[in-house]
Amino acid sequence: MKKQILFVDDEPAVLDALRRMLHSQRHVWEPTLVDDAGEAAKHLRDGTFDAVVLDVKMPGIGGLELLSRIRHSERTRDVPVVMLTGLADRGLKRKALELGAADLLGKPLEAEDLFARLRNVLRLKSLQDELKARNQSLERSVEQRMTELFHSRLDIIWRLGKVAEQRDEDTGNHVVRVGFYSRIVAEALGMNHGFQESTFLAAPLHDIGKIGIPDRILLKRGALSPGEQATMRQHCRIGESILREESLVRRAFFHWRAVNSDFAAAEFSNPILDVAAEIALTHHERWDGKGYPQGLAGEEIPLVSRIVAVCDVYDALSSARPYRDTYPEDEAMEIIRGESGKHFDPQVHAAFVNSLPELQSIRKRFPDVTKAAALEEAWDEPDLVCR
Questions:
Q1: C-alpha 379: how far from its chain's center?
Q2: Spatial CA neighbour of 181 closest among 368, 373, 348, 6
Q3: What class is the 168-384 domain?
Q4: Which of 143-147, 275-279, 282-286, 383-387 is predicted with the least confidence, judged by mean pLDDT?
């Protein structure tokens, strides 16, 4: 394709001379000649040019002013500009170069000088365009790879959530609802989008550690003995271990790849799983310090875990369990209100209450689907609210 070149000069004699000069280059260059900087600005706005040859001194918008506009426009900032002048101002060339001109030629013009300058700037422009296209292609490839990696990580998280669902099937959509509830409460607390997103994705994994609890305890239709309660409480540390600790498979893979452990950790860290591990470990801690497994109190407990704690208990109270029936809504809310400042962070509890209509809407959208026709016996002990 012919190179598109815009020539701007207010002197008709100069434009006529340029037409004659350019006739020999008509097979490679397509010139557009105008005698007014305002008209040139319109051409630059509406068309695409590979180079501009611009007179310095013109009525109205001067050449330097037009050069400045070219450089400050996203559309034309990379277009090379050769300036023409018949002035003997020694500082003019420096000023033009400072504004971004590729070169400055004196009048009267010699055809070979003009052609040599244009060939140089056009060659440089072609190289710049090629480099820009390669960089854009590389950026698209990197962006695509990052998107694929992001989706891969999400898929792993969702698969883990499915494990939790399958392990404790009588709770139905519990893990799904807790994810929704926790994001809504985080939003009510004014947390940013990133916090909300990570909470939404990580919260459903809060009970992943229950895959390490025997069925005879996890699905027991009755109160747990002290020993069984101690075993059940181990699900917090089991969950953290699953989500955070080094695995033998990972270690073997990187040994096979002969990659050192520092590189492996940096390359394959998953921030969502880090949040999920934090939640798994601390979602049974209490604001008053009487929770487990670490006995953390107040703001020692991560905010995300304080949010999941109230959402988890609310959903547990509102759902049937193997060891008790569903609590009526008003009774469930009264139990939760009584635990504000004891089990729950008062500020998180306030955000939870303000979000209640949205939470109820989520419960209607994602009801439990249980396999058991009916529960054998209802239990009202407070320790059976959420194991």
A1: 45
A2: 348
A3: mainly alpha
A4: 383-387
Neighbours of 314 (CB within 10 A): 27
Question: Which residue intervals of the chain are DSSP H helices?
Answer: 12-22, 37-46, 63-72, 92-98, 111-167, 174-188, 193-202, 215-218, 226-233, 235-244, 248-257, 261-268, 271-282, 303-317, 329-338, 346-354, 356-365
The encoded tokens of residue 345 equal 């962070």
Residue pair 371/170 in contact by the 8 Å Cβ criterion: yes
Q: Where are the domains of the chain?
A: 3-136, 168-384
204 near 168, Cβ under 8 Å? Answer: no
- Entry pTM: 0.60
CA 301 to chain centre: 26
Same topology for domains 3-136 and 168-384, yes or no? no
Q: What does CATH list as the number for 3-136?
A: 3.40.50.2300
Give pLDDT tens digits for 160-193.
776 766 665 555 578 889 999 999 999 999 999 9
Q: In this structure, what DSSP letter does residue 108 have?
A: S
Check the CA dihedral 281-286-292-297 and report its sign.
positive
Is omega for the bond preceding 108 within 30 degrees of 0, making it cis? yes
